[in-house]
Amino acid sequence: MSSPHAHSAKTRSSRQALKLDDITIVDRAILKRAVGAMAFGNAMEWFDFGVYSYIAVTLGKVFFP
């Protein structure tokens, strides 16, 4: 029977060295904008979740006493 992790048993010496095409360089301004957009989106998701939770409980108490 073969091991399910047989393909991941490579050692450091058997790995190939990084090439120039393997490296991605990102402009700092673009990176900051992307991180800011991600943080804003995450905050909006939590706000939406909180508002929905509050409204769901409130409507439940009002219409189903």
For the record, give the distance between the C-alpha atoms at the N and C termini, rounded to a whole number.
61 Å
| Largest β-sheet summary | none
Shape: elongated
Q: Approximately what portion of the residues adopt beta-strand conformation?
A: under 5%
Mean pLDDT: 85
Category from helices, strands and their pairing = mainly alpha
Oligomer class: single chain
What integer value in Å does the Rg equal? Answer: 25 Å
Unreliably modeled segments: none
Count of distinct strands: 0
What is the number of helices?
1
Q: How much helical structure, as a percent, in the residues?
A: 55-70%
Give the H and E element order.
H
Would you write up a description of this structure?
The chain has a domain at 26-65. Helices cover 55% and strands 0% of the residues. It contains 1 helix and no strands. The longest helix has 36 residues, at 28-63. The radius of gyration is 25 Å and the shape is elongated. The model has no long low-confidence stretch (mean pLDDT 85).
